[in-house]
Amino acid sequence: xxxxxxxxxxxxxxxxxxxxxxxxxxxxxxxxxxxxxxxxxxxxxxxxxxxxxxxxxxxxxxxxxxxxxxxxxxxxxxxxxxxxxxxxxxxxxxxxxxxxxxxxxxxxxxxxxxxxxxxxxxxxxxxxxxxxxxxxxxxxxxxxxxxxxxxxxxxxxxxxxxxxxxxxxxxxxxxxxxxxxxxxxxxxxxxxxxxxxxxxxxxxxx
Amino acid sequence: xxxxxxxxxxxxxxxxxxxxxxxxxxxxxxxxxxxxxxxxxxxxxxxxxxxxxxxxxxxxxxxxxxxxxxxxxxxxxxxxxxxxxxxxxxxxxxxxxxxxxxxxxxxxxxxxxxxxxxxxxxxxxxxxxxxxxxxxxxxxxxxxxxxxxxxxxxxxxxxxxxxxxxxxxxxxxxxxxxxxxxxxxxxxxxxxxxxxxxxxxx
Lengths: 206, 202
Prior knowledge:
The complex is a heterodimer. Chain A is mostly helical. Chain A has helices at 3-10, 26-31, 36-60, 69-91, 93-99, 101-104, 110-120, 125-155, 166-170, 182-199, and strands spanning 157-158, 161-162. In chain A, helix 1 runs parallel beside helix 8 (125-155). By secondary structure, chain B is an all-alpha fold. Chain B is globular, with a radius of gyration of 18 Å. Chain B starts with a helix and ends in an 8-residue tail after the last helix.
């Protein structure tokens, strides 16, 4: 694989993370992370959709008229999301109910539009595919970390399996109810950004 | 009438688009540096929401549901939203060039603002709810109430955050947290504050 392609794949995972650095795709990152299972399903769905839509738009990039390019991109993404949404409803109904509107909101997920405009419109199909996978994994990684912390401390479970031993509850241990509520997701992402920027000093703002 | 008002008030405070559902965060964080631009964007979002949500409601109930084409809703909704946003952009450019210049790229970006699409998707979910549920959308008037309420809620949230961020310019924030990191934590605290409204029984 060419150097440039490996870079497109690896950069968005940590150094140029979709969520932490580019600040894209935050809406769904915060909303579906109260449990690990929907977070993983969401991360996978977004990765697949970004990769495939990147390829399609990259193949079409020379034929799209400039004035209607946003509408074409939106229609392609909307069609892909419709397909993924129907597949989820058919094969993983309980997760799709938990995700509710956020599956549809993948259409307006900034990561998609951002990568389509910034990368797929200027590069070939294979690099675009890798870039899509890289951004999707960067996004999914943050989702999994936040969901892991929230579910573990908020419900004592992971994936539905009880992790915190039940006799701890008898000795006075309580689940942290705030973890499951929306504010904690925001504060957790803020803390992850803190750690990320402390390690990559050139990202710090003045 | 009562349902109209309780849905309206509920959409602004209890079901706030930013603090309860995290919709529209990207442009929310990017445009909230000054109160002036935040206010301009807030008004634009209210306007777009007020037009697109009732149109999508009519599309869903009069066109898609009777014909069993519910799965086409995503494509149709986003097409309506993109079209209306283009129209709003042209109107703003004509009547207020100053606002147009200060909003820059964020005006066309309202088309992909999760809050607008999210509003339409929530509307789709709530059409099927029991009428005694305060969240239910049972008529065209309800859709207008929800649109206005959710738009105003989003605008309120962005203006509040912009006001806080303007003051925070003078605070001693640790370097790794400066900018977007402290903004996230601030929004988290604001979200906690807005949770007080969830006890409201209107």
